[in-house]
Amino acid sequence: MPTKHTSVRIRTPARLHFSLIDLNGELGRIDGGIGISLAKPNWLITISKSSSWSFPMEIEERLRIIQDNMKLTQKFHIEIESNLPKHVGLGSQTQLSLALTNAFSILETRQHTIPELAQFACRGGTSGIGVAAYENGGFILDGGHTCQEKPDFLPSHYSNAKSAVVINRFEVPADWYFVVTIPAFGEGKSGLEEVEIFKKYCPIPSSEVEKLSRIILMQMLPSIIEDDIEDFGRGLTSIQKIGFKRIENQLQDKFINSLQDFYLASGAAGTGLSSFGPATFGLIRTKAAAQDLLGKTEKFLDKHNISGTVFYSAVNNTGAEINIF
């Protein structure tokens, strides 16, 4: 029997990608990663059944890929109330893709898991953080892919691998906040440029992978459980100079390093670059402290004649918000 539902409204989280873990592969797996789901900013999208297709042109490329892979039988009207900026380190395209595929699946009464929807959209083939952030939120640790499934070092958009396996997720304390700065340097690395970076710098030496893994396992994960923001922040800051994250930081404008130093000098427990940036964040406890750090950050940008966007957000511990009507 056809569904009576005619519309789906979805509010996605954003995500911060802290680091890929193993771009060496000697143990037979590659990728792996850690990151968190942000409460804001969001894609807020309403998708309704329609007699003809209508949608904003900004999502045309994503929509074409999804249409081809899902083989949709109906037509839809797509309205976007708010969006995530593209290619700045917030996981915009994964969140958009999952919102679209999820809504289409619901309105066509299909039974797909979130990882299956990610495959329709060609997302999650390197990092599983964005997919898991959409599904359940929180802090996510994913275990990457076997080298048989994915023999090459590639970014998600160019990988045919299924969404990375989630090893564990943790709820993040409600009073941990991230102050995020997106300097107006243009979009971060993406597309074929990103592919070439993976080819040039991988494999990463096993010694760096081992050091990074120890920090994650013996410092960052216990610190979340014990609500130790200072120790978590120290781990977060230290991994900026290890493994593939070291490469991602080296490829940034020099201002990004200055911004990270500023965050630490201004009271942040930890700092880092999300994915290929330019989104750069400082971790701090309490909303009041986040508001104060945001104000200081805006003054810091003005002092250096850098334009950009600054915002703060708590962690989303629940995943996407979906309303069906």
User: What is the number of helical segments per DSSP (H or I, 4+ residues)?
Assistant: 10
How much strand content do the residues show?
Answer: 15-25%
How much helix, percentage-wise, in residues? 25-40%
What is the fold-level CATH name, i.e. the topology?
Answer: Ribosomal Protein S5, domain 2
The CATH C-level class name: Alpha Beta
Q: Mind describing the biggest β-sheet?
A: 5 strands, antiparallel
Domain count: 1
Task: Encode the helix/strand succession as letters.
Answer: EEEEHEHHHEEEEHHHHHEEHEE
CATH architectural designation: 2-Layer Sandwich
Coarse structural class? alpha+beta
The pLDDT mean sits at 95
What does this structure look like?
The mean pLDDT is 95. Strands 2, 3, 6, 7 and 8 form a five-stranded antiparallel sheet that branches. The chain has helices spanning 60-70, 92-107, 114-120, 129-135, 191-201, 206-225, 229-238, 243-250, 254-265, 287-303, and strands at residues 7-11, 14-22, 29-38, 44-50, 75-82, 139-142, 145-146, 166-170, 176-183, 270-273, 280-285, 308-314, 321-324. It contains ten helices and 13 strands. The chain has a single domain, classed as Ribosomal Protein S5, domain 2, CATH 3.30.230.120. Helix 1 crosses helix 2, helix 2 (92-107) crosses helix 3 and helix 6 runs antiparallel to helix 7. The protein is α+β, with helices and mostly antiparallel strands and 325 residues long. A hairpin with a 6-residue loop joins strand 2 (14-22) and strand 3.
